[in-house]
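User: C-alpha coordinates for Nucleotide sugar dehydrogenase, please.
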Amino acid sequence: MHQRTPAGSPATDTMFEFDVAVVGMGYVGLPTSLAFREAGYRVLGVDVSEHRLQTIRDGRADLLEGDRERLGRALEDPGFELTSDAARLSNAAAVVIAVPTPVDEYLVPDLSILRSACATVVENAVSGQLVVLTSTSYVGCTKDMVALPLTARGLLPGLDVHVAFSPERINPGVDDFSQEEVPRVVGGITEACGQRAEVLLAKYVPKVHLVPTAEAAEMTKLLENTFRAVNIALANEFADICGTLNISVMDVIDAADTKPFGFMRFNPGPGVGGHCIPCDPHYLLWQLRRNRMNAPVIEQAMQDIAARPRRVVDRSRKLLSDRDQGLAGARVLLAGVAYKPDVEDVRESPALEIIAGLAAEGATVGYIDPLISRISSKGIELDSVTDPAGFAPDLVIMHTSHAGFDLGWLDAVPTVLDTTYKLPAAPNTIQL
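Assistant: Done. Predicted C-alpha coordinates:
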Protein backbone atom coordinates (compact mmCIF):
# COMPACT_ATOMS: atom_id res chain seq x y z
CA MET A 1 0.00 0.00 0.00
CA HIS A 2 1.28 3.45 -0.97
CA GLN A 3 0.95 6.03 1.75
CA ARG A 4 -0.82 9.34 1.28
CA THR A 5 1.63 12.15 0.49
CA PRO A 6 0.90 15.53 2.10
CA ALA A 7 -0.17 18.21 -0.37
CA GLY A 8 2.76 20.07 -1.88
CA SER A 9 5.48 17.63 -0.83
CA PRO A 10 7.15 15.18 -3.24
CA ALA A 11 6.84 11.46 -2.69
CA THR A 12 9.88 9.90 -1.07
CA ASP A 13 12.23 7.77 -3.18
CA THR A 14 11.55 4.73 -0.99
CA MET A 15 7.82 4.73 -1.76
CA PHE A 16 8.21 4.02 -5.48
CA GLU A 17 10.45 1.92 -7.70
CA PHE A 18 10.72 4.76 -10.26
CA ASP A 19 10.90 8.53 -9.87
CA VAL A 20 9.27 9.19 -13.25
CA ALA A 21 7.25 7.17 -15.75
CA VAL A 22 6.83 8.69 -19.21
CA VAL A 23 3.79 7.53 -21.17
CA GLY A 24 4.50 7.68 -24.90
CA MET A 25 7.98 7.00 -26.27
CA GLY A 26 7.67 9.14 -29.39
CA TYR A 27 9.44 12.31 -30.56
CA VAL A 28 8.63 14.04 -27.23
CA GLY A 29 8.42 11.22 -24.72
CA LEU A 30 11.73 9.55 -25.52
CA PRO A 31 13.92 12.70 -25.33
CA THR A 32 12.01 13.74 -22.20
CA SER A 33 12.67 10.41 -20.52
CA LEU A 34 16.36 10.67 -21.43
CA ALA A 35 16.56 14.19 -19.95
CA PHE A 36 15.01 12.95 -16.71
CA ARG A 37 17.50 10.07 -16.60
CA GLU A 38 20.45 12.41 -17.16
CA ALA A 39 19.21 14.43 -14.18
CA GLY A 40 19.50 11.36 -11.98
CA TYR A 41 15.90 10.17 -11.97
CA ARG A 42 14.95 6.50 -12.15
CA VAL A 43 12.86 6.39 -15.32
CA LEU A 44 10.25 4.01 -16.70
CA GLY A 45 9.35 4.48 -20.37
CA VAL A 46 5.88 3.20 -21.30
CA ASP A 47 4.44 2.72 -24.79
CA VAL A 48 1.65 0.60 -26.23
CA SER A 49 3.82 -0.36 -29.21
CA GLU A 50 6.30 -3.18 -28.62
CA HIS A 51 7.72 -2.42 -32.06
CA ARG A 52 8.53 1.12 -30.98
CA LEU A 53 10.10 -0.10 -27.75
CA GLN A 54 12.25 -2.59 -29.64
CA THR A 55 13.34 0.15 -32.04
CA ILE A 56 14.51 2.14 -29.02
CA ARG A 57 16.24 -0.85 -27.44
CA ASP A 58 18.06 -1.47 -30.73
CA GLY A 59 19.25 2.15 -30.78
CA ARG A 60 17.42 2.87 -34.06
CA ALA A 61 15.10 5.64 -32.84
CA ASP A 62 15.21 8.94 -34.75
CA LEU A 63 17.14 11.18 -32.36
CA LEU A 64 19.57 14.05 -32.39
CA GLU A 65 23.17 12.90 -31.94
CA GLY A 66 23.29 14.14 -28.35
CA ASP A 67 20.14 12.24 -27.44
CA ARG A 68 21.43 9.17 -29.27
CA GLU A 69 24.45 9.21 -26.96
CA ARG A 70 22.13 9.62 -23.98
CA LEU A 71 20.08 6.66 -25.13
CA GLY A 72 23.22 4.53 -25.25
CA ARG A 73 23.99 5.43 -21.64
CA ALA A 74 20.38 4.93 -20.56
CA LEU A 75 20.16 1.44 -22.05
CA GLU A 76 23.09 0.40 -19.86
CA ASP A 77 21.50 1.91 -16.72
CA PRO A 78 19.41 -0.39 -14.48
CA GLY A 79 17.48 2.73 -13.45
CA PHE A 80 16.06 3.09 -16.98
CA GLU A 81 13.46 0.60 -18.20
CA LEU A 82 11.08 0.31 -21.14
CA THR A 83 7.76 -1.53 -20.97
CA SER A 84 4.33 -1.89 -22.55
CA ASP A 85 2.84 -3.00 -19.23
CA ALA A 86 0.70 -0.06 -18.08
CA ALA A 87 0.16 -1.65 -14.67
CA ARG A 88 3.72 -0.70 -13.78
CA LEU A 89 2.72 2.98 -13.79
CA SER A 90 1.67 2.52 -10.18
CA ASN A 91 5.37 2.06 -9.35
CA ALA A 92 6.31 5.63 -10.32
CA ALA A 93 6.24 8.72 -8.12
CA ALA A 94 5.44 10.91 -11.13
CA VAL A 95 3.75 10.08 -14.43
CA VAL A 96 4.32 12.29 -17.47
CA ILE A 97 1.91 11.91 -20.40
CA ALA A 98 3.47 12.69 -23.80
CA VAL A 99 1.33 11.29 -26.61
CA PRO A 100 0.29 12.74 -30.01
CA THR A 101 -2.70 15.04 -30.41
CA PRO A 102 -3.33 15.14 -34.18
CA VAL A 103 -6.22 16.47 -36.23
CA ASP A 104 -8.28 14.41 -38.68
CA GLU A 105 -8.70 15.00 -42.42
CA TYR A 106 -11.33 17.64 -41.64
CA LEU A 107 -8.91 19.50 -39.30
CA VAL A 108 -10.96 18.45 -36.28
CA PRO A 109 -9.00 17.47 -33.14
CA ASP A 110 -8.49 13.73 -32.76
CA LEU A 111 -8.41 13.14 -29.00
CA SER A 112 -8.59 9.35 -29.13
CA ILE A 113 -4.91 8.71 -28.33
CA LEU A 114 -4.86 11.24 -25.52
CA ARG A 115 -8.13 9.98 -24.01
CA SER A 116 -6.80 6.44 -24.02
CA ALA A 117 -3.48 7.42 -22.43
CA CYS A 118 -5.13 9.54 -19.73
CA ALA A 119 -7.64 6.78 -18.95
CA THR A 120 -4.77 4.30 -18.56
CA VAL A 121 -2.89 6.64 -16.23
CA VAL A 122 -6.01 7.29 -14.14
CA GLU A 123 -6.78 3.57 -13.92
CA ASN A 124 -3.30 2.82 -12.56
CA ALA A 125 -2.88 5.92 -10.38
CA VAL A 126 -2.11 5.54 -6.69
CA SER A 127 -2.09 7.91 -3.75
CA GLY A 128 1.03 10.04 -3.57
CA GLN A 129 1.60 10.31 -7.32
CA LEU A 130 2.09 13.39 -9.47
CA VAL A 131 0.55 13.32 -12.97
CA VAL A 132 1.83 15.86 -15.51
CA LEU A 133 0.18 16.19 -18.90
CA THR A 134 2.43 17.62 -21.65
CA SER A 135 0.43 16.84 -24.81
CA THR A 136 -1.04 19.93 -26.47
CA SER A 137 -4.82 20.08 -26.33
CA TYR A 138 -7.73 22.38 -25.60
CA VAL A 139 -7.97 24.58 -22.52
CA GLY A 140 -9.39 22.53 -19.66
CA CYS A 141 -8.15 19.20 -20.98
CA THR A 142 -6.05 18.44 -17.88
CA LYS A 143 -9.08 18.93 -15.68
CA ASP A 144 -11.44 16.96 -17.93
CA MET A 145 -9.21 13.98 -18.72
CA VAL A 146 -7.09 13.66 -15.59
CA ALA A 147 -8.30 15.60 -12.55
CA LEU A 148 -12.02 14.80 -12.70
CA PRO A 149 -11.55 11.08 -13.46
CA LEU A 150 -9.06 10.83 -10.59
CA THR A 151 -11.58 12.54 -8.31
CA ALA A 152 -14.22 10.05 -9.42
CA ARG A 153 -11.84 7.30 -8.28
CA GLY A 154 -11.58 8.94 -4.88
CA LEU A 155 -8.11 10.45 -5.46
CA LEU A 156 -8.42 14.19 -4.80
CA PRO A 157 -5.97 16.50 -6.67
CA GLY A 158 -3.90 18.49 -4.19
CA LEU A 159 -4.53 15.98 -1.42
CA ASP A 160 -4.24 12.36 -2.54
CA VAL A 161 -2.56 13.05 -5.89
CA HIS A 162 -1.16 16.06 -7.73
CA VAL A 163 -2.12 17.01 -11.30
CA ALA A 164 -0.50 19.62 -13.55
CA PHE A 165 0.03 20.65 -17.15
CA SER A 166 3.46 21.53 -18.55
CA PRO A 167 3.64 21.93 -22.35
CA GLU A 168 6.48 20.24 -24.18
CA ARG A 169 8.91 22.56 -25.96
CA ILE A 170 10.92 20.21 -28.15
CA ASN A 171 12.04 21.24 -31.65
CA PRO A 172 12.61 17.96 -33.54
CA GLY A 173 15.71 17.82 -35.71
CA VAL A 174 17.17 21.03 -34.27
CA ASP A 175 19.88 20.93 -31.62
CA ASP A 176 20.18 24.68 -31.01
CA PHE A 177 18.51 24.24 -27.62
CA SER A 178 18.68 21.11 -25.52
CA GLN A 179 15.78 20.28 -23.21
CA GLU A 180 17.81 21.51 -20.25
CA GLU A 181 18.21 24.95 -21.83
CA VAL A 182 14.52 25.63 -22.48
CA PRO A 183 12.44 26.93 -19.54
CA ARG A 184 9.36 24.91 -18.66
CA VAL A 185 5.95 26.44 -18.04
CA VAL A 186 3.77 24.60 -15.55
CA GLY A 187 0.38 25.12 -13.94
CA GLY A 188 -1.43 22.90 -11.48
CA ILE A 189 -5.04 22.00 -10.81
CA THR A 190 -4.38 23.44 -7.35
CA GLU A 191 -1.57 25.60 -6.04
CA ALA A 192 -0.04 22.58 -4.32
CA CYS A 193 -0.19 20.61 -7.59
CA GLY A 194 1.71 23.31 -9.43
CA GLN A 195 4.37 23.47 -6.73
CA ARG A 196 4.82 19.69 -6.79
CA ALA A 197 5.30 19.69 -10.57
CA GLU A 198 7.71 22.60 -10.29
CA VAL A 199 9.91 20.52 -7.97
CA LEU A 200 9.93 17.63 -10.46
CA LEU A 201 10.90 19.78 -13.44
CA ALA A 202 13.37 22.04 -11.65
CA LYS A 203 15.81 19.18 -11.28
CA TYR A 204 16.60 19.12 -14.99
CA VAL A 205 15.79 22.60 -16.35
CA PRO A 206 17.37 25.88 -15.20
CA LYS A 207 14.07 27.74 -15.03
CA VAL A 208 10.49 26.71 -14.33
CA HIS A 209 7.85 29.36 -14.86
CA LEU A 210 4.90 28.57 -12.60
CA VAL A 211 1.54 29.97 -13.70
CA PRO A 212 -1.53 30.05 -11.43
CA THR A 213 -3.59 27.39 -13.20
CA ALA A 214 -3.34 24.42 -15.54
CA GLU A 215 -5.56 26.33 -17.96
CA ALA A 216 -3.04 29.16 -18.20
CA ALA A 217 -0.29 26.65 -19.01
CA GLU A 218 -2.50 24.99 -21.64
CA MET A 219 -3.23 28.33 -23.30
CA THR A 220 0.46 29.22 -23.26
CA LYS A 221 1.27 26.37 -25.66
CA LEU A 222 -1.64 27.27 -27.92
CA LEU A 223 -0.39 30.86 -28.08
CA GLU A 224 3.18 29.78 -28.87
CA ASN A 225 2.25 27.66 -31.89
CA THR A 226 -0.58 29.89 -33.08
CA PHE A 227 1.92 32.78 -33.10
CA ARG A 228 4.18 30.71 -35.34
CA ALA A 229 1.33 29.69 -37.64
CA VAL A 230 0.14 33.26 -38.16
CA ASN A 231 3.64 34.49 -38.92
CA ILE A 232 4.39 31.65 -41.34
CA ALA A 233 1.16 32.46 -43.18
CA LEU A 234 2.30 36.10 -43.32
CA ALA A 235 5.73 35.09 -44.69
CA ASN A 236 4.04 32.99 -47.39
CA GLU A 237 1.82 35.90 -48.30
CA PHE A 238 4.80 38.24 -48.58
CA ALA A 239 6.52 35.68 -50.83
CA ASP A 240 3.54 35.80 -53.18
CA ILE A 241 3.45 39.61 -53.04
CA CYS A 242 7.17 39.90 -53.76
CA GLY A 243 6.85 37.44 -56.63
CA THR A 244 4.11 39.56 -58.19
CA LEU A 245 6.26 42.70 -57.84
CA ASN A 246 9.41 40.93 -59.09
CA ILE A 247 11.28 41.31 -55.79
CA SER A 248 13.30 38.61 -54.04
CA VAL A 249 11.40 37.85 -50.84
CA MET A 250 14.54 36.46 -49.22
CA ASP A 251 16.38 39.74 -49.88
CA VAL A 252 13.53 41.49 -48.10
CA ILE A 253 13.46 39.07 -45.16
CA ASP A 254 17.26 39.17 -44.80
CA ALA A 255 17.12 42.97 -44.72
CA ALA A 256 14.27 43.11 -42.20
CA ASP A 257 16.12 40.59 -40.05
CA THR A 258 18.93 43.09 -39.47
CA LYS A 259 16.61 45.04 -37.17
CA PRO A 260 17.51 44.08 -33.58
CA PHE A 261 14.03 44.74 -32.20
CA GLY A 262 10.41 44.53 -33.32
CA PHE A 263 10.99 41.84 -35.96
CA MET A 264 11.21 38.04 -35.76
CA ARG A 265 12.26 36.06 -38.80
CA PHE A 266 9.89 33.57 -40.45
CA ASN A 267 10.60 32.07 -43.87
CA PRO A 268 8.07 31.07 -46.55
CA GLY A 269 7.76 27.51 -47.78
CA PRO A 270 5.52 24.84 -49.36
CA GLY A 271 3.29 24.52 -46.30
CA VAL A 272 3.59 23.45 -42.70
CA GLY A 273 3.95 19.92 -41.38
CA GLY A 274 4.70 18.06 -38.21
CA HIS A 275 2.92 17.64 -34.92
CA CYS A 276 2.41 21.24 -33.78
CA ILE A 277 1.78 24.15 -36.13
CA PRO A 278 -0.70 22.47 -38.53
CA CYS A 279 -2.59 20.95 -35.57
CA ASP A 280 -2.43 22.96 -32.36
CA PRO A 281 -4.30 26.11 -33.49
CA HIS A 282 -7.19 23.91 -34.59
CA TYR A 283 -7.63 22.76 -30.98
CA LEU A 284 -8.15 26.39 -30.03
CA LEU A 285 -10.48 27.13 -32.97
CA TRP A 286 -12.48 23.98 -32.23
CA GLN A 287 -12.99 25.08 -28.64
CA LEU A 288 -13.90 28.61 -29.69
CA ARG A 289 -16.53 27.33 -32.13
CA ARG A 290 -18.12 25.43 -29.26
CA ASN A 291 -18.32 28.79 -27.46
CA ARG A 292 -19.59 30.56 -30.61
CA MET A 293 -16.57 32.84 -30.73
CA ASN A 294 -14.64 33.83 -33.85
CA ALA A 295 -10.90 34.35 -34.18
CA PRO A 296 -10.62 35.78 -37.71
CA VAL A 297 -6.86 36.30 -37.80
CA ILE A 298 -6.14 32.73 -36.68
CA GLU A 299 -8.85 31.28 -38.91
CA GLN A 300 -7.50 33.03 -42.01
CA ALA A 301 -3.92 32.03 -41.21
CA MET A 302 -4.87 28.36 -40.88
CA GLN A 303 -6.88 28.49 -44.11
CA ASP A 304 -3.87 29.95 -45.91
CA ILE A 305 -1.54 27.31 -44.45
CA ALA A 306 -3.91 24.52 -45.50
CA ALA A 307 -4.04 25.94 -49.05
CA ARG A 308 -0.29 26.27 -49.50
CA PRO A 309 0.38 22.74 -50.90
CA ARG A 310 -2.35 23.35 -53.48
CA ARG A 311 -0.46 26.46 -54.59
CA VAL A 312 2.60 24.26 -55.24
CA VAL A 313 0.49 22.02 -57.51
CA ASP A 314 -0.97 25.02 -59.33
CA ARG A 315 2.48 26.57 -59.78
CA SER A 316 3.79 23.27 -61.12
CA ARG A 317 0.99 23.19 -63.70
CA LYS A 318 1.81 26.75 -64.76
CA LEU A 319 5.55 26.04 -65.18
CA LEU A 320 4.86 22.98 -67.32
CA SER A 321 2.24 24.87 -69.30
CA ASP A 322 4.82 27.55 -70.09
CA ARG A 323 6.78 24.76 -71.78
CA ASP A 324 3.69 23.57 -73.68
CA GLN A 325 3.26 20.58 -71.39
CA GLY A 326 0.48 19.70 -68.97
CA LEU A 327 0.58 17.89 -65.66
CA ALA A 328 -1.09 14.86 -67.23
CA GLY A 329 1.71 12.59 -68.36
CA ALA A 330 4.46 14.76 -66.87
CA ARG A 331 7.14 13.25 -64.66
CA VAL A 332 7.48 15.22 -61.41
CA LEU A 333 10.05 14.45 -58.73
CA LEU A 334 9.98 15.86 -55.20
CA ALA A 335 13.37 16.45 -53.59
CA GLY A 336 12.75 15.73 -49.91
CA VAL A 337 9.39 14.79 -48.38
CA ALA A 338 10.03 15.06 -44.62
CA TYR A 339 8.01 17.83 -43.00
CA LYS A 340 11.21 19.69 -42.06
CA PRO A 341 14.95 19.27 -42.65
CA ASP A 342 16.88 16.53 -40.86
CA VAL A 343 13.95 14.58 -39.41
CA GLU A 344 12.70 11.12 -40.40
CA ASP A 345 9.09 12.23 -40.14
CA VAL A 346 6.37 12.89 -42.73
CA ARG A 347 3.48 13.59 -40.36
CA GLU A 348 1.31 16.34 -41.87
CA SER A 349 4.08 16.96 -44.42
CA PRO A 350 2.93 19.24 -47.27
CA ALA A 351 4.71 16.80 -49.60
CA LEU A 352 1.99 14.20 -49.07
CA GLU A 353 -0.74 16.56 -50.23
CA ILE A 354 1.41 17.83 -53.09
CA ILE A 355 2.05 14.28 -54.32
CA ALA A 356 -1.65 13.42 -54.09
CA GLY A 357 -2.59 16.60 -55.96
CA LEU A 358 -0.09 15.98 -58.75
CA ALA A 359 -1.15 12.35 -59.12
CA ALA A 360 -4.82 13.33 -59.25
CA GLU A 361 -4.03 15.46 -62.32
CA GLY A 362 -2.32 12.61 -64.10
CA ALA A 363 1.34 13.24 -63.31
CA THR A 364 3.79 10.43 -62.70
CA VAL A 365 5.20 11.36 -59.29
CA GLY A 366 8.32 10.21 -57.49
CA TYR A 367 10.48 11.46 -54.67
CA ILE A 368 14.01 11.25 -53.37
CA ASP A 369 14.78 11.65 -49.69
CA PRO A 370 17.85 10.25 -47.90
CA LEU A 371 15.90 9.96 -44.62
CA ILE A 372 12.54 8.62 -45.83
CA SER A 373 12.72 5.28 -47.65
CA ARG A 374 8.97 4.82 -48.18
CA ILE A 375 5.75 6.79 -47.88
CA SER A 376 2.19 5.57 -47.78
CA SER A 377 -0.53 8.20 -47.66
CA LYS A 378 -3.78 9.24 -49.33
CA GLY A 379 -3.88 6.00 -51.30
CA ILE A 380 -0.38 6.45 -52.71
CA GLU A 381 2.59 4.25 -51.89
CA LEU A 382 6.05 5.21 -53.11
CA ASP A 383 9.63 4.20 -52.47
CA SER A 384 12.39 6.77 -52.59
CA VAL A 385 14.07 7.05 -55.98
CA THR A 386 17.74 6.05 -55.90
CA ASP A 387 18.69 7.57 -59.26
CA PRO A 388 17.00 10.91 -60.04
CA ALA A 389 18.52 10.97 -63.53
CA GLY A 390 16.97 7.57 -64.20
CA PHE A 391 13.56 8.95 -63.20
CA ALA A 392 14.02 11.58 -65.96
CA PRO A 393 11.88 14.31 -64.36
CA ASP A 394 10.29 17.04 -66.41
CA LEU A 395 10.01 19.07 -63.19
CA VAL A 396 11.65 18.82 -59.76
CA ILE A 397 9.95 20.34 -56.72
CA MET A 398 12.53 21.20 -54.07
CA HIS A 399 10.59 20.50 -50.89
CA THR A 400 12.97 19.65 -48.00
CA SER A 401 16.65 20.62 -47.76
CA HIS A 402 18.33 18.07 -45.48
CA ALA A 403 21.87 18.75 -44.36
CA GLY A 404 24.25 16.84 -46.64
CA PHE A 405 21.52 16.21 -49.25
CA ASP A 406 23.49 15.94 -52.55
CA LEU A 407 21.62 18.16 -55.02
CA GLY A 408 24.24 18.39 -57.75
CA TRP A 409 21.93 16.49 -60.10
CA LEU A 410 19.53 19.44 -60.15
CA ASP A 411 21.76 21.19 -62.69
CA ALA A 412 20.66 18.74 -65.38
CA VAL A 413 16.92 19.06 -64.65
CA PRO A 414 14.81 21.10 -67.13
CA THR A 415 12.93 23.03 -64.42
CA VAL A 416 13.25 23.23 -60.63
CA LEU A 417 10.48 24.74 -58.50
CA ASP A 418 12.16 25.89 -55.29
CA THR A 419 9.57 25.92 -52.51
CA THR A 420 12.31 26.26 -49.86
CA TYR A 421 13.60 29.62 -51.19
CA LYS A 422 17.10 28.33 -50.38
CA LEU A 423 18.56 27.16 -53.70
CA PRO A 424 21.14 29.40 -55.39
CA ALA A 425 19.99 31.30 -58.45
CA ALA A 426 20.19 29.22 -61.62
CA PRO A 427 18.67 29.43 -65.12
CA ASN A 428 16.49 26.37 -64.46
CA THR A 429 15.37 27.33 -60.94
CA ILE A 430 12.21 29.28 -60.11
CA GLN A 431 10.98 30.13 -56.63
CA LEU A 432 7.45 29.29 -55.57
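User: Anything notable?

Assistant: Residues 214-244 form the longest helix (31 residues).
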